[in-house]
Amino acid sequence: MKKRIVALFLAVVFLYASSSAFALNNNYGEVTFELNLEANPPAKLNGKPYGTSYYEQLTDLEKAIYNARLENLEVFKNAAVDEVYFEVPENAKADEVIAAFFNACYAFDFDHPEVFWLSKVMRLSYYTNSSGVVTKALFKKPDTGWYNTAFSSKEQIEKAEADFNAVVDQLVSQAQDTVYDKVLFFHDWLVNNNEYNRLVYEGNIEDASQLAWCAASALIGDPDDPKDDPVCEGYARAFKVLCDNAGVECAIISGISGGAHMWNAVKLPNGFWFALDATFDDPIAATPVLSHKYFLKGSETMSKTHTAQGSVTSYGTFIYPTLNKKDYPMLAGGSLGDVNLDGKINTGDAVAVLLYIVGKSNLTDKAKACADYNCDSTVNTGDAVFILQYVAG
Q: b vs e for 116-141, b when ≥16 Cβ sit within 10 Å of the residue's Cβ?
């Protein structure tokens, strides 16, 4: 399957005054960033493990740029604005600001897929003094504008946002209470209500809408217009938006699976992360097919077909969530930890596990699946300990 993920182009141009002696603010530099996960997928940043966002892996300087992007979204909607100034920490050198700019842009893009209308192209302009310290920094409007090319006005963006939020709210309200049921519902809805973009699949990338690479494609794309159908980014970004709004910890993962690809990882109540690929569970076929082949898989399964990888630039890489080794069990009508199947997880479930281990009671196949709380394919005292830890909070 051919995958096209938004093009990335990295170009750094430095323009300096011809004088050999520079006055304060006389040195001018400009950096253009264009997200291209296919050519340079992101990976680890600063050696910090994934917590709840990629923002947490950033330095203070990177966070300042990330926050400036987030805080100025309403300004970016104004097409008449050409420059947006922001503060950077004192004594930051130009090369440090450039590196931070790239890392911040990647982290923001992965953490905030709900900002589907913002261009993947960002331009940083800055001024330095004679010591190379940045004295002014600003976002400068790219040649293509602040918007994703699927949008042309603030009014159009706000209408799309309203429609988008309405669908998200509706789906979140329809999802059942448990994290497992929410994740399953969101996965199945995205698969059942979308079709992978055939234009991109057949190599007609230029005919597809830029919407295809955004969360909006899988939630509010025109079902009668094939150019709006999502590619893998559309599925993965939409899934994260739904999880974020439902209180489910979710991360976007980029890497290789038969080509450049994007999928998700979700954290389940047992404290472990599992991978989910809604794109691959929605195979292109004459008759729509719902699959769970890539639903809540552990590293043993995912490593056979998916490789989370990539070096963005020399500036840094992301650290992705560490997956549980084994797959999460498919629990039809049950919840992990609810061993006695009474709809609750409490000390009684831990006792049921211990009684089973010492041979004092039996468990049905469904109960055994629910008892394997740490998803290591065995029911043992470790599961009882994990259940008790969960009950204790």
A: bbbbbbbbbbbbbeeeebbbebebeb
Q: Taking Cα atoms as reference points, which of 73, 132, 131 lies closest to residue 98?
A: 132
pLDDT at 334: 67
* pLDDT at residue number 222: 86
CA distance 346 to 340: 10
CA nearest neighbour of 112 among 310, 228, 245, 268: 245
Location of structure tokens 């699949």: 201
Distance CA 21, CA 108 (A): 38
E-strand ranges in 145-287 read: 250-256, 260-267, 273-276
CB 167 within 8 A of CB 160: no
Reference 278, options 235, 330, 321; nearest CA is 235
Burial of 362: CB neighbours in 10 Å, binned 0-12, 13-18, 19+? exposed
- Give every CB contact of residue 263 below 8 A, 6+ residues apart in sequence: 232, 236, 253, 255, 257, 275, 276, 277, 278, 279, 280, 294, 306
Q: Tally Cβ neighbours within 10 Å of residue 40.
A: 19
The answer to whether residues 328 and 300 touch, using CB atoms and an 8 Å cutoff, is no
Query: What domains can you pick out in the chain, each with its CATH number?
Result: 9-140 (no CATH), 154-308 (3.10.620), 347-392 (no CATH)
C-alpha torsion sign, points 178, 184, 187, 189? negative
Contact yes or no for 257/280 (Cβ under 8 A): yes
348: tokens are 């009684």
Q: Which is more confidently placed, 31 or 120?
A: 120
Map residue 134 onto helix, strand or coil.
Answer: strand
User: What pLDDT does 10 receive?
Assistant: 28
pLDDT band at 6 (very low <50, low <70, confident <90, very high): very low
Q: Which two tokens stand for residue 355?
A: 């009684």
Closest CA to 229 of 263, 191, 195, 201: 195
Distance CA 99, CA 349 (A): 50
pTM here is 0.85
